[in-house]
């Protein structure tokens, strides 16, 4: 069956900690361009576009020949912005690709899409599939910008938290995992998110994945098998530059 699978890159200019970060230069080019080029190498995506609230990002996308949709500036999270963009882009699946994770690749995107396709029949449309990446250092585990995740044996998410979970009571001899910004949604899942009020856990953690988990909607995770980095500060941008250089050597 031929399916239309649409990639959407939420890109918010008004970041509190790093205003304008989608247009921050990484290797001399806007970070958003790196993300778009990686997404464009996906074998499974039918189309890719940016969803933003910013005229600055819209103008940059126009100059870089990147399709762009304007969305409401009031969105509090990427999933909400994705839902609005999806309303004007009919598709079988929607893939959120974080505009601030330039280390994610087209192969990573395809890995998560395929995991979602494998679950579609069993889950009847109401589920989410995400990427996760290994945490490499105690500092990264403690960083509240990173959403740590714990999963069952089948990859189903048990709980995501900004706190380093599971908490090591004894010797630290396991790998922490964190959410990496690839999420695959059916339209049914996006509508569920938009129609469901924010619950207490999502409010406390400021993690939109909890809106699904609090209501027993399956949220699955697939490992990319390599580190990733969410660029939330200028320090992160410098670190991403170094990691890209190392990957290219």
Short recap of the structure:
By secondary structure, this protein is α/β, with parallel strands linked by helices. The chain has helices spanning 31-40, 55-64, 78-87, 106-123, 138-142, 187-195, 200-205, 209-213, 234-248; strands at residues 5-11, 25-26, 29-30, 47-52, 68-70, 93-97, 128-134, 148-151, 157-161, 177-185, 219-223. It is built from 9 helices and 11 strands.
Please, could you describe this protein's structure?
By secondary structure, this protein is α/β, with parallel strands linked by helices. 35% of the residues lie in helices and 22% in strands. The chain contains nine helices and eleven strands. The chain has helices spanning 31-40, 55-64, 78-87, 106-123, 138-142, 187-195, 200-205, 209-213, 234-248, and strands at residues 5-11, 25-26, 29-30, 47-52, 68-70, 93-97, 128-134, 148-151, 157-161, 177-185, 219-223. Strands 5-4-1-6-10-7-11 form a seven-stranded mixed sheet, sandwiched between helices. A two-stranded antiparallel ribbon has the order 2-3. It has a two-stranded antiparallel sheet with strand order 8-9. Strand 4 (47-52), helix 2 and strand 5 (68-70) form a beta-alpha-beta unit. Helix 3 (78-87) crosses helix 6 (187-195). The protein is globular and about 55 Å long. The model has no long low-confidence stretch (mean pLDDT 93).
């Amino acid at each position: 069956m031929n399916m239309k699978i649409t990639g959407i890159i939420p890109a918010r200019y008004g970041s509190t900690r790093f205003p304008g970060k989608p247009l921050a230069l990484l290797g001399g080019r806007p970070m958003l361009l790196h993300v778009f080029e990686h997404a464009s190498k996906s074998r499974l995506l039918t189309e890719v576009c940016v969803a933003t609230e910013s005229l600055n990002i819209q103008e940059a996308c126009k100059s870089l020949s990147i399709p762009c949709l304007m969305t409401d500036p009031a969105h509090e999270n990427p999933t909400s912005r994705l839902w609005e963009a999806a309303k004007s882009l009919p598709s079988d699946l929607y893939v959120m690709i974080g505009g601030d994770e330039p280390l994610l690749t087209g192969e990573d995107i395809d890995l998560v899409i395929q995991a979602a396709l494998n679950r579609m029949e069993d889950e009847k449309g109401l589920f989410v599939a995400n990427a996760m990446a290994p945490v490499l250092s105690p500092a990264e585990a403690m960083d509240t910008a990173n959403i740590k995740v714990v999963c069952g044996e089948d990859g189903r998410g048990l709980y995501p938290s900004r706190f380093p979970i599971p908490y090591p009571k004894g010797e630290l001899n396991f790998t922490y995992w964190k959410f990496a910004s690839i999420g695959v949604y059916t339209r049914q899942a996006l509508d569920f998110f938009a129609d469901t009020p924010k619950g207490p856990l999502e409010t406390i953690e400021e993690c939109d994945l909890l809106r699904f988990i609090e209501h027993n909607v399956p949220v699955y995770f697939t490992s990319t098998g390599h580190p990733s980095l969410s660029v939330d500060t200028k320090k992160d941008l410098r670190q991403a530059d170094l990691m890209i250089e190392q990957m290219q050597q």
